[in-house]
Amino acid sequence: MPAVSRRNSAKANTKKPRYRRIVLKLSGEALKVKGTADNISPEIVEQICREIREIHAMGVEIAIVIGGGNIWRGLSASHRGMERTTADYMGMLATVINGLALKSALGGMGLEARVHTAIRMDAVAEPFIRNRAVHQLSKGDVIIFVAGTGNPFFSTDTTAALRANEIGAEIILKATKVDGIYTADPMKDPKAKRYDRITFSEALAKRLSVMDSTAFSLCMDNKLPIVVFDMMTPHNIRRIVCGEKVGTIVTHE
């Protein structure tokens, strides 16, 4: 299938996006249907990629950071006795598998997707080089960042914050299974209330779990906003990109 022309595809949606370049943070668990044997659901991958194609057609430059928790969680394995560094490297490899699944699905929809890895594996992905990634984004390629930062002890949340700052993204869209940040766990506390908007300082003071501390500090220090939203609600990404109030936005002020 031929690659989708950004100029032609942009005509499919006339509403002007608020953000020019974004980082979409996906968890590995988002690719799996709970209770099934498959670690990656082709149907879910296709659904996610349709959402990505929708905003690509608007001219938005898209980078994706994918986790690997559907296949392997390094921290959990280390708690069960495995040496932490080895467990984390195994988790990085899991993100590569997920990234290749996204690349394949996007390619099937006519989008050019590039997998950039923090650990060299030239047969399956290209090494992350900042200037190359920025150039590819500017010409309409979708970039998928895999293998985390290439270092153990860092989460893919930190990868999202780091890469977003490196490539000059305007916002991080953190896809979750809930529709925002709450005062408490909404699964456990029916009285929990959702924030529409909250500052970094307020989130820290209230000890709200938005991202891990390293990732959160990177975003706060560089005034990079984060939107936490429900990935499974159709068209949520487009709505956020167009400036609609979806989920919870964390801002500097």
Write the layout of secondary structure elements.
Blueprint: H1 6-9, E1 21-26, H2 42-56, E2 61-66, H3 74-79, H4 84-108, E3 113-117, E4 126-127, H5 130-138, E5 142-146, H6 156-167, E6 171-176, E7 181-182, E8 194-195, E9 197-199, H7 200-205, H8 213-221, E10 226-230, H9 236-241, E11 248-251
Parallel strand pairs: 1-2, 1-6, 2-5, 3-4, 3-5, 6-10, 9-11
Antiparallel strand pairs: 7-8, 10-11
Compact description:
The chain has helices spanning 6-9, 42-56, 74-79, 84-108, 130-138, 156-167, 200-205, 213-221, 236-241, and strands at 21-26, 61-66, 113-117, 126-127, 142-146, 171-176, 181-182, 194-195, 197-199, 226-230, 248-251. It has 253 residues and is α/β, with parallel strands linked by helices.
